Amino acid sequence: MMVEEFLWYYVLATIIGTAAVGLCGMICRPHMIKKLVMLTIFSDAIEMLAVFIGYRITATQPPVYPGGVIEGFVYPSQASLKEFAGAAVDPLPQILIVTAIVIGLAVLLFLVTLSVTAGEMFGTQNLSKIEGGEKNE
Amino acid sequence: MKLSVVVSLMLAVIFAVALVQLGLVSPDFTSNLYLAYKYLSEIPLQGSLLYTGSPEIVTSVLWDQRGIDTYYETTVLFLAIIGTLYIFAEKIKPSEPSKEMTVIVKLIAKVVAPIIMIVSISVALHGHLTPGGGFQGGSIFVVAPLILLAAMGGSKLIKLGFKKDSLLSLRLTGLILIAFIGISTLIIGFMKGVMGYLFLNQPKTYVPLGYADVIHAPWGEIVIAGTLILLNLMEFLAVSAGFTLALLGLDAVVEGGKK
Amino acid sequence: MIHIPLILAAIGSTLALIASIVALLQRDVLKAIILSGIESTFFALLLTAFLAPDLLIAYVAIGLGINSVILLYALRKGERYEE
What we know:
The complex is a heterotrimer of chains A (about 140), B (about 260) and C (about 80). Chain A is an all-alpha fold and about 140 residues long. Chain A has a single domain, classed as Orthogonal Bundle (Helix Hairpins), CATH 1.10.287. Helix content of chain A is about 65%, strand content about 0%. Chain A is built from four helices and no strands. The longest helix of chain A is centred in the C-terminal third of the chain and has 31 residues, at about 90-120. Chain A starts with a helix and ends in a 15-residue tail after the last helix. Chain B has about 260 residues and is mainly α. Chain B has one domain. In chain B, about 65% of the residues lie in helices and about 5% in strands. Chain B has a two-stranded antiparallel ribbon. In chain B, strand 1 (about 215) and strand 2 form a beta hairpin. In chain B, helix 4 packs antiparallel against helix 8 and helix 6 (about 135-150) packs across helix 7 (about 155-160). In chain C, about 50% of the residues are buried. With about 80 residues, chain C is mostly helical. Chain C has one domain. The interface between B and C is medium-sized, with 19 and 15 residues.
């Protein structure tokens, strides 16, 4: 069990590390499209963290009940369902993250239209070259 | 830059240590929480309170037990698309790409795009039996006009039938029909004098009206899980038409020349 | 003894961390967009190891296909190198 526990803590550390890299990149860099790329990296890492919380080390099946759809529909019995519920992965975080992925795409579409309009109005997409924009070092 | 690196690393370390110390995550969890166990063992079981008629847990919770959440999420997508179209408030004119692509790129785009469209509608219609559903099918569908747009320009898409007015009306049809299916049991129950509920799928012990879960045809049995197949189809229409519309608007501004 | 899903997850998350660090330190925005696509591929490997098939189909289509092309379209109205 020692190897599996070490691997579990290692995966947790790297996922949170990727989120920290994305957060730092959003604040530092002055180009608008670079900020959007770091935003997508940050939101992806938080979604992976949420799915990781619902994972059990001893689980062997995704949350789809196998059997019953080939040649005639058979209603599942209670004993086989108890065995399935003991060997499956937690489905609740996956349900909430399906919504989050699609809403992240919609927000990115809106931010892209805003940055394209700003690029036409000011002539550049670099925030340190506009008067009144942010100054880095 | 040094200050922000130090601050974000410190925040990450504090977050990770707090998650492990408070007992929220641990490698020693070997059985599910009580709510997850109840969902996993009672949703495919006929005769229980949570029965939806499909062996797929994720799709049935999305559209039956949490149906109102998913409906409002479709509305949020619609608001984002309206915001995009409002900023690019000009007519979407046909445009040519600024650099002509070679024969290889155009041929592969013409071959791959119909295959992607057929795979996406198959994934969307089988959402109640295998992993898939409305969101997944709609997202795969958007890749096909994207490839055609990058290889051949916006004029080819408008010639193929992706016009702005027809896409907008498809989007509105999908959204209105989802709301109608959700309210239909309420209206029918009101007319019959029985109490109905929003987004009701199967008949329960205290509500004698609902949708069927298996259709008995003369050549066999067809498994439809009540409202799940209808809602998946409407969501596929809504998502695919909406994102293609936003892509047309983006392309018209970027390639349309000087304003 | 050998727990294969956790080994796959460790490989995928390490390579994603390396790709995102390289994307942070780049001066060329075009290469940063391509590197975010590479990082999405390794996150798809992570989702396979965590037994989540519904998420995998949506994530590959959105993160790898649509995000890269939309950001490439948006880059045309500005400059390619940030200084």
